[in-house]
Amino acid sequence: MTPTARSRGLKFPVILLGKEKLDSKTIRAFLKQTQYELVLVGNKDVPVLYNGETDDEPLDMIESFGQLGWPDDFMNEINQKPGVNGKAFVILDSTSGQDQSTCLVAASVGDDNPTIDHAKFRCQFSSTLSVLAQLDRGGPADIPHIIRRLRTEAAEAGAVWEMALVDRIKSREAQIGLSKFPPSKDWNTRCPEALPRTSRPYFPIFRSAEISLQTLNEFLESTYCKEHWGHSSDEPDPRASIITAVEPPYSDGPAEPPLKTVPYLPKQFLGTRPHEFDAIVRSVFSCPSNENPEFNYNRYIVMDEMTEKDKTVLIIANDETEGLVVSRSDFKGALLILISSKVTS
């Protein structure tokens, strides 16, 4: 059955964002793929809502929001219009114009975290209705959790939410017995970066797929490039370690290029998803706050099935107020994101 985003006759709004205006052909293609279940809205000078179903609708008159950022005030106004579903909204941006196949889906998470207004992720045109249907089924308190889950799924799928790929990832059976990794009482959201010591805790690197020696070394050489780290020379350099076991010593020590051989990969790691690795991190790497942890238990890297092909890795953080945050990074930016004050997707 084809998913529908319509709730009690309401339609989700679509806005245009970017300095360059999208052509009406791209806009109409998107509205057609979403079966005219959405409505396009413009600035305050265009009070009419269009769904693109008829050729006489002047879609080229809809104004883009340019570089104004999130149009919160306007969206609040639009949500008061009859027929509009205010749980989430869709953005057609410059990337939409370039690839003509993806959009952004965004929803407010500001109710329980005033520092973050919206969570967003990229989605295939053809999968947009499925995503919006999931958001539509949630109540106001559920929306932040649903949008974060969808955002994580998009990162796992290669940075774009595509229904067939996400369904395949979710269908995998967990290889790790999560019951073996109960949360440690010592886990907290402030893993010490550098107590009186000469080095930081290792950022753990997990692998959920077979990664070649060439790719491992390419990643380490790229991410250890100090030119773009931007931290003080007085601070200890970030360092990483490839996890090879769930029992001590957990790894073979610092992961420094060039590696001579591929570190051991536990078979139970194959196909493991971020929330499953997070159970391991919270359970076995946590330590009392007055001790120096060997491994960072708030932030880590996962090399997955996309790593070999796309040269990207998953960056995972469990120390932010919006819950587990999963994003995808190229090799060069991985450590830079981990040492930043905030991980975003």
Write the topology of this structure.
Elements: E1 12-16, H1 24-33, E2 38-40, H2 72-78, E3 89-92, H3 94-99, E4 102-108, E5 118-124, H4 128-136, H5 143-156, E6 160-161, H6 163-170, E7 203-207, H7 213-223, E8 240-242, H8 274-285, E9 299-303, H9 307-310, E10 312-317, E11 325-330, H10 334-338
Parallel strand pairs: 1-2, 1-3, 5-6, 7-8, 7-9
Antiparallel strand pairs: 3-4, 4-5, 9-10, 10-11
Helix pairs in contact: 4-5
Fold and architecture overview:
25% of the residues lie in helices and 15% in strands. The protein is α/β, with parallel strands linked by helices and 345 residues long. The chain folds into 2 domains: 13-170, no CATH class; 172-339, no CATH class. The strands form 2 sheets. It has a 6-stranded mixed sheet with strand order 2-1-3-4-5-6. Strand 1 (12-16), helix 1 (24-33) and strand 2 (38-40) form a beta-alpha-beta unit. Helix 4 packs antiparallel against helix 5.
Features:
single chain; 345 residues; 6-stranded mixed beta sheet; 10 helices
Q: What is the β-strand count?
A: 11
Structural class: alpha/beta
DSSP summary: helix tally: 10
What is the first-to-last residue Cα distance? 31 Å
Order of secondary-structure elements: EHEHEHEEHHEHEHEHEHEEH
The pLDDT mean sits at 84
Poorly predicted ranges (pLDDT <50, ≥5 residues)?
A: 111-116
